[in-house]
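Following up on my earlier thread - several people asked me to post the actual chain instead of describing it. Fair enough. Here it is, all 249 residues.
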Amino acid sequence: MLYRVEGIVIRSMDYGEGNKIITLCTETSGKIGVLVRGAKKVKSRHAALTQPFTHGEYVFFRQNSGLGTLNQGEIIESHFSLREDLFLAAYASYACELLDKTLQDEEIGSFWYTQLKACLEGLSSGKDPQIVIHLFEMKILQAAGYGPSFENCVSCGRNDDSPYVSPRLGGKLCRGCRHQDPAAMQVTPGVLKLLTLFERMDLRRLGNVEVKEETKQELKTVMRAFMDMQLGLKLKSLHFLDQLDKYEI
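Reply from S.P.:
Thanks for posting it. Predicted structure:
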């Protein structure tokens, strides 16, 4: 059967001497693997369609389930600027790998697709990449069923001015419930405000936000704790991002 889908390349790998297998995140068909024959050849008309972060329309043939074979395609947005910048490529790779490891094959849901599309567009348009990525992480947690709550206490539902958040319990703890997690993190009002905003905001609505460097560093620590505790993924792209940050490359 012939399929026509709009998708984003979240993974591309060599297969054999001249072929590639790409993994697409699509709006209507979940995550799909497609074989692109001859994609590694110099004169291949399909080579550009296999580049990471490429947003395009893909027409492929597939029998039953399993791997499809590309018939034709058209690029909607190449996101070339993301691939030519080391930092942006690292952030975009992390976003794609995070979604790839979280989303099951052919798990249907336009939310995954629209948030990834907005994430890559945000990185391409010059928005603060760290803010874009942390908001994307929040959306991934929510889509995976682990979305934290920062409006009210996750234990009793009370709303107070408590500065404590618990990655283990999944959100804010009021002062009365603080004892339920001795390892709860105390955060500054600025970070708590951002976390509360991220919980409610769709990535497509993110504008240009200016955040102090110390606030971003604290936000990174808190979001890492939530991601590690709730998803526990070991991602190569995240390790590379940490190396860039460590050596200030």
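Residues 62 and 68 are 4 Å apart (CA to CA). That should answer part of your original question.
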